[in-house]
Design goal:
Helix 3 runs antiparallel to helix 10. The chain is mostly helical and about 290 residues long. The protein has a single domain, classed as Orthogonal Bundle (MetI-like fold), CATH 1.10.3720.10. Strand 1 and strand 2 form a beta hairpin. Strands 1-2 form a two-stranded antiparallel ribbon. It contains 11 helices and 2 strands; from the N terminus they run αααααββαααααα. About 70% of the residues lie in helices and about 5% in strands. The longest helix has about 30 residues.
């Protein structure tokens, strides 16, 4: 008779029922709950003439919200890229200017930046372009004037007299500081050997950054860029403080005129939720499509 020793033999537990065909832990319950809540909200909204009329009235606010968001984020990408490249530059002047921009803008609330731009910076440039801004370039060695001109443009003056344009520029400047750090982190995540290899092939610094470093960095920083895009959609509501008639200001005015805040703010919240969820799904699709293979 064989001797099994003192080791205990463990048997698998007996199955008392039929195994579930779906792993419940992997089911996206939050999506299911949102879909059910959305269906219920749609039934309530589209069966009520009051809610449907509110959606129709807020349509122009939705358009302006998306317009401000897309244009401001496009400008913020440009501002952030320029400041991010300056942040990784070895030039002390460029590095100091970009660092000062990033630290100052990130240390001031976005609402304060929008109000400061609206009440201080925009009127200054509007009056300056209307009356003429004198530009002189002196010779630092002799003191003589190398170049002198007066810049006067009514088109540029009108650009700084529009609440929508002022809100877009203020949002772009504010988010540009945050995107600058995102770009900087992405660039510094690329190994230095990539830049050295590109330079050894005869590329200039700009060419290496454009064709080698930035394409790889963009794929790394795509998730935070998408998150900032969704955040800007929500922060576009701050432009209502300077009378930009986007969704929030339209809702505030309509609810005050009709004395029906419950219906108006409920619709506004649902519209923001639909827009942010839609953009989040698009961002996730782009992340999976352009993700770096592991």
């Amino acid at each position: 008779m064989p001797d099994f020793g003192s080791r205990a033999v463990s048997l698998p537990p007996a199955r008392t029922g039929r195994a579930l065909p779906v792993n419940l832990e992997r089911v996206p319950w939050w999506i299911i709950i949102l879909i059910l809540a959305g269906v219920l909200a749609a039934l309530v909204i589209f069966t009520s003439p009051d809610y449907t009329s509110i959606i129709t009235l807020l349509g122009s606010g939705i358009y302006l919200t998306l317009y401000v968001t897309f244009l401001a984020y496009f400008l913020a990408l440009i501002f952030g890229l320029i400041a991010g490249l300056m942040r990784v530059s070895r030039n002390p002047i460029l590095y100091t200017i970009s660092t000062l921009y990033v630290e100052v803008i990130r240390g001031i609330p976005l609402l304060v930046q929008i109000l400061y731009f609206f009440y201080v910076i925009a009127p200054f440039f509007a009056d300056g372009f209307s009356k003429g801004i004198a530009i002189t370039l002196p010779n630092v060695f002799t003191g003589e004037t190398l170049f002198s001109a007066t810049l006067r443009s009514e088109e540029l003056a009108e650009l700084f007299r529009s609440e929508v344009n002022e809100g877009i520029i203020a949002l772009a400047i504010g988010y540009g500081a945050y995107l600058a750090e995102v770009y900087r982190a992405g660039i510094e995540a690329i190994p230095r050997g990539q830049m050295e290899a590109a330079r050894s092939l005869g590329m200039s610094y700009i060419q290496a950054m454009r064709y080698v470093i930035l394409p790889q960095a963009i794929r790394i920083i795509l998730p935070p860029l998408g998150n900032d895009f969704v955040s800007m959609l929500k922060d576009s509501a701050l432009t209502s403080a300077i009378s930009v008639k986007e969704l929030t200001l339209w809702t505030r005015q309509r609810s005050a005129n009709t004395f029906r805040p419950l219906e108006h703010w409920t619709i506004a919240a649902l519209l923001y939720l639909v827009m942010t969820l839609g953009l989040s799904l698009i961002v996730r699709y782009l992340e999976r499509k352009f993700a770096i293979p592991k």
